[in-house]
């Protein structure tokens, strides 16, 4: 991994011609926010290698740790980005990011909207506990839960559960919000389903839709429709606010910490992106 680490350090120092789109967008986002990266640490971990006759294919996780300065304040942002390359005759070839799939279940949420309960039930949401959980597990996986190939909503649901959100609806997967060892509701693990669940639930875990991102506070949730096509692809949890009062979020797939809420530095981002902002609980 030392060769790959040096490759990235050379890139960040010299700004090569082959600039990843996510880095270009990140720089633009930082400029718009009047923020700058004052320190950068690069690391990586190989999670798969395949040997052929005269070459080896490597899949690895690029770990970036930024110290960001904004209006005299500092915060640390971290990202884990999956990459792969082929090492052939001592040369790195085909070095590129690994695309992630998205998960959705329209049928499940359509059924849920028909069966949602109208009688309210209050619960005390412990935002600090939710954020502490988000910080503890942003770059790893709690062994008490299943790990999904697309893990963003599972991770957010775990954070909400750590904050005291009550589960209900077992064993109907199209109903409520719940998790068991060998089964779970669609709303627990599917981004599209959690978005619509938060819009409609009047029992247990509830979300109040807010108009703007700056109205959110730590422990709240942001949903993302990257293509603007009505299919909700991703969820994050707010863990902090930047110097201008805008949310910083944690997420899985790809794993990130204290990332700026708008996700403009994501390869999935498009100009058609839609967001939903949810205040969690009854406050």
Helices and strands, with pairings:
Elements lengths: L1 H13 L6 H12 L2 E17 L3 E16 L2 E16 L2 E7 L8 H10 L11 H11 L14 H11 L16 E2 L2 E2 L1 H4 L1 H10 L6 E4 L10 E5 L8 E8 L5 E5 L4 E5 L13 E7 L3
What is the structure about, briefly put?
This protein is α+β, with helices and mostly antiparallel strands and 283 residues long. It is built from seven helices and twelve strands.
Task: Explain what the structure shows.
With 283 residues, the protein is α+β, with helices and mostly antiparallel strands. The chain has helices spanning 2-14, 21-32, 106-115, 127-137, 152-162, 186-189, 191-200, and strands spanning 35-51, 55-70, 73-88, 91-97, 179-180, 183-184, 207-210, 221-225, 234-241, 247-251, 256-260, 274-280. The strands form 2 sheets. Strands 1, 2, 3, 4, 7, 8, 9, 10, 11 and 12 form a 10-stranded antiparallel sheet that branches. It has a two-stranded antiparallel ribbon with strand order 5-6. Strand 3 (73-88) and strand 4 form a beta hairpin. The longest helix has 13 residues, at 2-14. The termini are far apart.
Q: What level of helicity do the residues show?
A: 25-40%
Estimate the strand proportion.
25-35%
Report the count of strand segments: 12
Gyration radius (Cα, Å) is: 20 Å
Q: Overall mean pLDDT score?
A: 89
**Through-space gap between termini:** 47 Å
Q: What is the overall number of helices? A: 7
Low-confidence stretches: 106-120
């Amino acid at each position: 991994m030392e060769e790959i680490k040096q490759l990235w350090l050379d890139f960040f120092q010299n700004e090569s011609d082959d600039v990843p789109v996510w880095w270009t967008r990140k720089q633009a986002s930082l400029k718009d926010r009047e923020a700058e990266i004052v320190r950068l640490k690069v690391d990586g971990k190989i999670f798969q290698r395949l040997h052929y006759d005269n070459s080896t294919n490597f899949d690895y996780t690029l770990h970036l740790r930024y110290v960001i300065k904004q209006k005299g304040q500092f915060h640390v942002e971290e990202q884990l980005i999956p990459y792969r390359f082929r090492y052939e005759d001592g040369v790195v070839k085909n070095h590129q990011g690994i695309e992630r799939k998205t998960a959705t279940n329209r049928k499940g949420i359509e059924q849920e909207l028909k069966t949602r309960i109208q009688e309210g039930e209050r619960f005390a949401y412990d935002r600090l506990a939710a954020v502490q959980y988000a910080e503890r597990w942003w770059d790893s996986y709690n062994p008490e839960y299943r790990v999904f190939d697309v893990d963003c909503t599972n991770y957010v649901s775990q954070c909400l559960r750590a904050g005291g959100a009550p589960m209900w609806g077992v064993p109907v997967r199209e109903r409520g919000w719940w998790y068991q060892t060998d089964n779970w509701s669609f709303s627990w693990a599917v981004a599209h389903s959690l978005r619509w669940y938060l819009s409609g639930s009047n029992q247990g875990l509830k979300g109040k839709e807010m108009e703007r991102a700056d109205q959110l506070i730590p422990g709240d949730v942001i949903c993302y429709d990257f293509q603007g096509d009505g299919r909700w692809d991703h969820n994050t949890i707010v863990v902090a606010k930047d110097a201008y009062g805008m949310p910083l979020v944690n997420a899985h797939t790809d794993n990130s910490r204290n990332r700026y809420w708008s996700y403009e530095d994501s390869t999935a981002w498009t100009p058609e992106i839609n967001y939903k902002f949810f205040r969690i609980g009854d406050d």
